[in-house]
Write a structure and sequence with these properties.
- The protein is an alpha+beta fold.
- Helices cover 28% and strands 28% of the residues.
- The chain has six helices and nine strands, in the order ααααααβββββββββ.
- The strands form two sheets. A six-stranded antiparallel β-sheet has the order 1-2-3-9-4-7, with no helix packed on it. Strands 6-5-8 form a three-stranded antiparallel β-sheet, with no helix packed on it.
């Protein structure tokens, strides 16, 4: 097998890190394999980057070796520092007649710093519902076109094209399109609620 073929087969190399930690902890291949519920030969092949482990196997090995997943995936993140979502590839979800299009996809490894962002299109006379009970974190919105209101607890804020707004998301809140044309906005939420999935 040529190096290029092997690279295609095993694109991410966890083996060296797994072996280094195992040896540092003075564990045998057999002990790790038994703890992870896999064969000794599989652990050996993974350590030599002969095979790419299934995610459940990788998680089991990480658990047995007490390895932080961030440590295992740091090589991947260094090779993929930028996430690009092309215009025609945005994931969408509808809440009644309201369209949400994902702009930023939350990454699990970002932990408390994870955020999500999407564009919202609210038809005339309609309103959002997903924040009506409140949730942890903060939100920021920027109105691209149209007009409306942000209802926040018992307060009402007028929104027009070019306005931006930020608030704690813990209180009940919703956006109402009070105009005659669709209200379009960019919305950012942190930590991510994973509304678009």
């Amino acid at each position: 097998m040529t190096p290029s073929q092997n690279e295609k087969r095993v694109p991410y190399h966890f083996g060296e890190k797994l072996r280094t930690v195992r040896e540092r902890k003075e564990l045998t291949l057999k002990e790790v394999a038994q703890g992870a519920g896999v064969s000794e030969s599989l652990v050996s092949q993974i350590e030599r980057n002969r095979v790419s482990p299934a995610i459940d196997t990788l998680l089991s090995l990480a658990d047995v070796l007490d390895i932080n997943l961030e440590y295992l995936f740091e090589e991947y993140r260094k090779k993929h520092p930028v996430v690009l979502i092309h215009k025609g590839e945005r994931r969408q979800v509808k809440e009644d007649s309201i369209l949400y299009e994902e702009i930023v996809h939350p990454e699990e490894e970002d932990g408390q710093h994870a955020l999500e962002a999407y564009s919202i299109t609210i038809p005339a006379g309609e309103q959002t519902h997903k924040g009506s009970y409140g949730h942890l974190g903060r939100e920021m919105g920027f109105i691209l076109s149209g007009s409306g209101e942000l209802h926040y607890e018992d307060l009402v804020y007028q929104l027009s094209k070019g306005d931006s707004i930020t608030f704690s998301a813990g209180a009940p809140h919703l956006i109402v399109n009070t105009g005659t044309e669709p209200l379009k906005a960019i919305w950012v939420v942190t930590p991510a609620q994973r509304f678009v999935s």
